[in-house]
Amino acid sequence: MREIHVLIVEDDPMVQEINRRFISKVKDFRVVGIANNGSEALKMVRELKPQLVLLDVFMAKMDGLTVLKEIRSIGANVDVILITADKTVDTIHDAIRYGVIDYIIKPFKFERFKEALLHYQKMRETLENKDNFQQQDLDRILHLKDDRIEELPKGLNQTTLDLVVDYLKNNKQFHTSMELSQDVGIARVTARRYLEYLTDKKVVQVELEYGSVGRPVHRYKFIESV
Fold first, then answer.
1. Residue 196, by phi and psi: left (phi above 0), alpha (psi -120 to 50) or beta?
2. Helix axis angle, 13-24 relative to 110-129, nearest 10°?
3. By three-state DSSP, how is residue 150 classified?
4. pLDDT tens readout for residues 69-123
């Protein structure tokens, strides 16, 4: 996957730093600029040509919705995630109307932030690697219902589940939770939770590998479509 360049548009230095640090923790994403206001943002969009803009709403000089509308009016080839404390219906409606790909309400946790980036990354990768689409393909990248399992238990999210399932589909041998965690980029305990969930749903099979000493190792393998 090619590196995704990100522009942060935020007037609060503390939030700027939080966003920058969060992005640094997600593979294949890199901050190429930080704009303190809307005017700077538009200038940087033109000059830096980022693939993704993280955009606040409440800013001096030019608010985020105006920036979003200007980005669309100049035809910039860039995607936008709104990150804001604004929860009003009008703002959310305008954001959707002008094509944001996600809307994150402050304060937010890293897991939600990471989920937004990973979903965006998966969407870009799918669009770049396909010439045409079936309905289920579009449903998947638009984060709509496809052939997903059901509402997930608390603590699990669909984006990470999709990553785990895609990995198991494409690597059909048996895997340990450690191998999965390293290859997918999640914590081992997280990998084990998703594998146990998929085992309960009879999507993966599990086998025990006994060594000379210690407890047996659980190994998991994809067995049916999700």
1. alpha
2. 60
3. coil
4. 999 999 999 999 999 999 999 999 999 999 999 999 999 889 889 989 988 988 8
Give the residue extent of every domain in the chain.
4-127, 147-222
Mean pLDDT score of the chain:
88
User: What Cα–Cα distance (Å) separates residue 66 from each residue in 27, 54, 99?
Assistant: 31, 14, 13
Short-list 137, 141, 181, 136, CA closest to 158: 141
Tens of pLDDT, residues 130-149? 778 777 777 767 654 444 44
Domain 4-127 has CATH 3.40.50.2300: yes
If we measure between CA atoms, which residue out of 83, 63, 79 comes closest to residue 71? 79
CATH number belonging to the domain at 147-222, selected among 1.10.10.10, 3.30.360.10, 1.10.3210.10, 3.90.1150.10:
1.10.10.10
